[in-house]
């Protein structure tokens, strides 16, 4: 039975799509862009005493309260997917290494939760005598994204009262001929006028 030699490299590729260069470079580029955007927003907010004026509109409320959380959750899910695929293919990566490793660390390897995978990757004793840097750092990135980035993303942009000081030109008011100054009552003035105080007790 003849084997097509042109398809041999494709059949020999055992890495999942999430662990290949395009996906990894895309996630790295997204994290770099998000870091730059966050740094620019912090600089602009410190320079201008905030990003803008909160006028109470629905679009602005959704934008500053929910958009950072949605972006953080999507980014965290990307990190978790990569970490899970690293743990899923860890046994094959150990068998493909040049150093001999016992079967209990390869064939009988059982993926664990992210915090145990971090210690397992940094420990030579738990990894068959060799540190597994990819397993350790991918699990650590997934844990940080789940515990910190997703949790504190809602407090990245908050509404806060800012006291702004500035010089104001002196204004002059001209009195009427009878010596009175006209007053312009506002809405709350009429409200307090037509309502009666109530006393309980």
Secondary structure layout plus pairing:
Elements (H helix, E strand, L loop, with lengths): L7 H5 L8 H28 L9 H31 L1 H7 L17 H9 L10 H20 L34 H8 L7
Helix pairs in contact: 2-3, 3-6, 5-6
In the predicted model, the low-confidence regions spanning at least 5 consecutive residues are: none
Q: From the structure provided, what is the oligomeric state, counting identical versus distinct chains?
A: single chain
Ends distance: 100 Å
Sheet bearing the most strands, described?
none
Give the proportion of residues in helices.
Answer: 40-55%
DSSP strand tally: 0
Can you give keywords for this protein?
201 residues; 0% strand; 54% helix; mainly alpha
Description:
The structure is a single chain. With 201 residues, the chain is an all-alpha fold. Helices cover 54% and strands 0% of the residues. It has helices at residues 8-12, 21-48, 58-88, 90-96, 114-122, 133-152, 187-194. The chain is rod-shaped and about 105 Å long.
